[in-house]
């Protein structure tokens, strides 16, 4: 694998060497974000993703760069001083818990050096944003990022520091006037929405399994932003069981029109792949092929609307051997500008490595064998369909606030 070059922790004023190659912010130290052997968010998913991408030559198409941990002052831009102090304390005393700040218990167990690991993830997403904003890379990705549930004063949903929110804050502080954040994780992007609820410069769009059936129980279509920022939060709650065709129908019925109307300077995305049918924690039914289609759609939007400027992060994904590595290898290839053929064989050595871990080999191809297609919204609305009612509710709630007609 290409050796990482150190990221610059300065204010981004020095553009440095301009490259036409996209970059990935990666360091093996990022896998120290580890809640323990039995936790579903296993860091082996990152290792297997990078291994697969390296074996397939995807990493060769990216500049691999390192990053510095976010400082306490930087973290304080989105988190309270008391919360950061609490994370420090528990990080130094991992046998303690503090449920008042969300740390302890099954979801967010305390682990040694927790602050350092979490600050590095946050710093990596800031570095990805810095690289794109200063022109050092056209696109950038941090697959270890996407910790979208972390709140200003608490950890939540496996997320300690909200790296994507910090990256967005960095961009705002360094000249970005309008940013669109698109979250395709199966879970609602509640932490990022919360942090920019009152900021009309940031349009947050989350497409997720509905709050009736999945954590965190938020993300209704009626959540549209705070006073003075009405319409800046958009939520597309999907019925459990939604598969590729329904997911893509919902995405294309809502997201492109809003992004085009908002006309952001840069696109920031959270690419959680726990929407997959094999994911043990969610109830959506997407395939790797459908997820790949969503990545291509987001790149196309970035190219069309904001001169290609795109910062992508990882997120959820708990089918850590069969799904996450393939989904995010596809994502990395699309960020690199060289999409992988879904029919491509996975490398034998990679499959054998998975067999060593779990006793059965990994998947043979980069596809789940699903044909990806969907019925466009303009072809008609079916009021008997839960999916269509959800789409229409989102359009009705959000489109007029953004100067758009909610009707097809």
From TrEMBL:
Recorded protein name is Acetoin utilization protein AcuC
UniProt keyword list: Acetoin catabolism
State the species of origin: Aeromicrobium endophyticum
Residues forming the Histone deacetylase domain are 39-333
Q: In which pathway does this enzyme or protein participate?
A: Ketone degradation; acetoin degradation
Q: Which family does it belong to?
A: Belongs to the histone deacetylase family.
Q: Which GO terms describe its molecular function?
A: histone deacetylase activity
Q: Which domain of life is it from?
A: Bacteria
Q: Mind listing the GO biological process terms from this record?
A: acetoin catabolic process; epigenetic regulation of gene expression
Pfam families named in the record:
Hist_deacetyl
């Amino acid at each position: 694998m290409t050796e990482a070059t150190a990221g610059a922790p300065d204010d981004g004023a020095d553009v440095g060497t301009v490259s036409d190659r996209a970059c990935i912010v990666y360091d093996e130290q990022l896998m120290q974000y580890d809640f323990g052997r039995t936790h579903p968010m296993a860091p082996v998913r990152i290792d297997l993703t990078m291994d697969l991408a390296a074996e397939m030559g995807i990493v060769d198409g990216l500049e691999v760069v390192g990053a510095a941990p976010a400082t306490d002052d930087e973290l304080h831009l989105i988190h309270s001083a008391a919360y950061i102090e609490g994370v420090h304390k528990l990080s130094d005393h991992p046998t303690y818990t503090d449920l008042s700040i969300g740390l302890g218990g099954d979801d967010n167990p305390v682990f040694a050096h927790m602050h350092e690991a979490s600050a590095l993830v946050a710093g990596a997403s800031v570095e990805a944003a810095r690289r794109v904003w200063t022109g050092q890379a056209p696109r950038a990705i941090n697959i270890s990022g996407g910790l979208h549930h972390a709140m200003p004063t608490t950890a939540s949903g496996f997320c300690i520091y909200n790296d994507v929110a910090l990256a967005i804050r960095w961009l705002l502080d360094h000249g970005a006037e309008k940013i669109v954040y698109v979250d395709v994780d199966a879970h609602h992007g509640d932490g990022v929405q919360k942090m920019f609820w009152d900021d009309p410069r940031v349009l947050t769009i989350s497409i997720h399994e509905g709050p009736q059936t999945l954590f965190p129980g938020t993300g209704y279509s009626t959540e549209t932003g705070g006073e003075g920022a009405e319409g800046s939060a958009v939520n597309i709650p999907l019925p459990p069981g939604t598969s590729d065709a329904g997911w893509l129908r919902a995405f294309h019925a809502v997201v492109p029109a809003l992004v085009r109307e908002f006309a952001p300077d840069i696109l920031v995305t959270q690419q959680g792949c726990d929407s997959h049918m094999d994911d043990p924690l969610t109830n959506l039914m997407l395939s790797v092929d459908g997820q790949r289609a969503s990545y291509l759609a987001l790149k196309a939007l970035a190219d069309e609307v904001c001169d290609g400027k795109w910062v992508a992060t990882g997120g959820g994904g708990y089918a850590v051997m069969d799904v996450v590595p393939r989904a995010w290898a596809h994502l990395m290839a699309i960020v690199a500008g060289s999409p992988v053929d879904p029919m491509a064989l996975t490398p034998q050595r990679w499959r054998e490595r998975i067999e060593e871990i779990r006793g059965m080999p990994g998947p043979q191809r980069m596809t789940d064998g699903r044909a990806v297609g969907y019925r466009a919204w303009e072809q008609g609305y079916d009021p008997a369909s839960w999916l269509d009612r959800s789409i229409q509710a989102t359009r009705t709630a959000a489109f007029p606030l953004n100067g758009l007609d909610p009707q097809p």
